[in-house]
Design goal:
By secondary structure, this protein is α/β, with parallel strands linked by helices. The protein has 2 domains: 351 residues, TIM Barrel; 101 residues, Orthogonal Bundle (uronate isomerase, domain 2, chain A). It contains 20 helices and 11 strands. Strands 6-7-10-11 form a 4-stranded parallel beta sheet, covered by helices on one side. Strands 1-2-4 form a 3-stranded parallel beta sheet. Strands 3-5 form a two-stranded parallel ribbon. The protein starts with 18 loop residues before the first helix and ends with a helix.
């Protein structure tokens, strides 16, 4: 194919080559392709929808500089993050010519062949921006101009795209100390797009967080409760959860290196918190405090009804040089081996059978799918499994997930799909990939008569839409 030749994405892309399964997958996919998008977990900035003058900026600002999926791959091939315009912590010089950065990306776009980023990108360029050529080094600037022109048009405002993408609800992820100003502005504007906050307390719960004391100070300020000890800390967190719920939140989100849960007696929790405030605590007791707070967050979820999400197994900022130069979340987070059965037992013994509690588990260790996570979800009423996360949010990763989880847990003990993205225009592509993978997997069951046609259509509808709405109480 020449650099200027138009191309079309086949309707039956990503489906099994077996003719019978492929035909069934196409039919199943067609039945769900037009369903509204339910986006219960992600990291889109609510300011996109509250600021009537919001601009995505240049194609480079939108698609490259903030996207760690993109620049981590380029970095792995020797491209310096400075050359991609990624800001440095010290304010040092980085490339500011967005056309040069785009050219570097286009010259290296072959690196993304066969990856989920490559699949999302080709879908996004074609269906969102109307690009009819494959991006490469030769046509990079022409395509840059086409995207740039679209981004300047009123039809590419965040609110217009929300409607065009057929998004029913989109949940953001917001710090416990967030005032939710942008969410309140969205509601006050009269726009009917449903944008909901999600309570994320990691920076105040994890005592090992840089500037933890400053985050505690911010918690005191926004809650109106002077956090001077463990009791007032718990009161402030409960106040903030109530505030988030009043502003539409249905869920909380928690990140942890491991799934370890430990119940501390109140005196020990008080002592650890006091020492942390004084700056005299140890890393070990602060780790134990974080494990204890997972149990406390579960207790609060039982009481206030917020769904609890737990993301486990990422060793964050693994590359110390990149962390020191560019800060956190720069593509250097690496999975670790994780254990759930023993680690979660204190929490599940206390709340796993309570009908008021809902826990959605995410992990980066695929070896736990069949061994631990599916059996846990297949037994405890409170537990649902989140979709394949991060490195496994891919065509092959989704297929592996289905094969390892569904025989033990069934699809109805899973939480459907969430896009977990910061890259707003990629949302339709991510959902479409999930829907295609779901249709293909269910088609495999149908052609082998494991399920009949009626069941197959109900299953793909659930995977595309129903399960996420139910799991997140949306």
């Amino acid at each position: 194919m020449s650099s200027s030749e138009t191309y079309r994405l086949p309707e039956d892309r990503y489906f099994d080559p077996d003719p019978a399964q492929r035909k069934t997958a196409v039919e199943l996919y067609r039945s769900i392709a037009g369903l509204p998008l339910v986006c219960p977990h992600g990291h889109v900035d609510p300011r996109l929808f509250s600021d009537p003058d919001f601009s995505f900026g240049s194609p480079t600002e939108l698609l490259i500089i903030p996207d760690h999926y993109v620049f981590r791959m380029l970095f792995s091939q020797g491209v310096a993050l400075e050359d991609l315009g990624v800001p440095r912590v010290d304010g040092g010089p980085v490339e500011s010519d967005h056309r040069k950065i785009w050219q570097i990306f286009a010259n290296n776009v072959h690196l993304f062949r066969g990856t989920p980023s490559g699949m999302w990108l080709q879908d996004e360029l074609h269906f969102v921006f109307g690009i009819e050529e494959k991006l490469n080094g030769a046509n990079a600037q022409q395509i840059y101009d086409q995207i740039d022109e679209k981004l300047r048009s009123p039809e590419f405002s965040p609110r217009k795209l929300f409607e065009r993408f057929n998004i029913e609800v989109l949940c953001t992820t917001d710090a416990a100390t967030d005032t939710l100003e942008h969410h309140r502005e969205i509601r006050a504007s009269g726009w009917n797009g449903r944008i909901l906050p999600t309570f994320r307390p990691d920076k105040v719960v994890n005592m090992l967080t840089p500037d933890w004391h400053n985050h505690i100070g911010a918690l005191s300020e926004v809650s109106g409760i002077d956090v001077t000890g463990y009791d007032s800390f718990i009161q402030a967190l409960e106040e903030r959860r109530a505030f988030f719920k009043e502003n539409g939140a249905t869920a909380t989100d928690h990140a942890a290196l491991t799934a370890e849960v430990e119940k501390l007696d109140e005196d020990l929790a008080q002592a650890i918190f006091y020492r942390a405030l004084k700056g005299t605590g140890t890393a070990e007791e602060q780790r134990r405090f974080g494990a204890h707070m997972l149990l406390e967050m579960a207790r609060m979820s039982v009481e206030d009804g917020l769904v609890m999400q737990l993301h486990v197994g990422s060793s964050r900022n693994h590359n110390q040089l990149i962390y020191e130069r560019f800060g956190p979340d720069k593509g250097a987070d690496i999975p670790i081996a994780t254990e759930f059965t023993r680690a979660l037992q204190p929490l599940l013994s206390a709340f796993g059978s309570d009908p008021r509690y809902s826990l959605i588990l995410f992990n980066l260790d695929e070896t736990t799918y069949a061994r631990e996570l599916a059996p846990l979800a297949g037994h405890y009423p409170a537990v649902k499994l989140g979709p394949p996360w991060w490195f496994h949010d891919s065509l092959n990763g989704i297929a592996r997930y289905f094969d390892q989880v569904m025989e033990t847990a069934g699809i109805y003990n899973t939480a459907g799909f969430n896009d977990d993205t910061r890259a707003y225009p990629s949302i339709p592509a991510r959902h479409d990939l999930w829907r295609r993978a779901s249709a293909n997997w269910v088609a495999g069951l149908a052609v082998r008569s494991i399920v009949d046609a009626g069941d197959a259509y109900e299953m793909v509808h659930a995977l595309a839409y129903d399960l996420a709405k139910a799991a997140y109480k949306l």
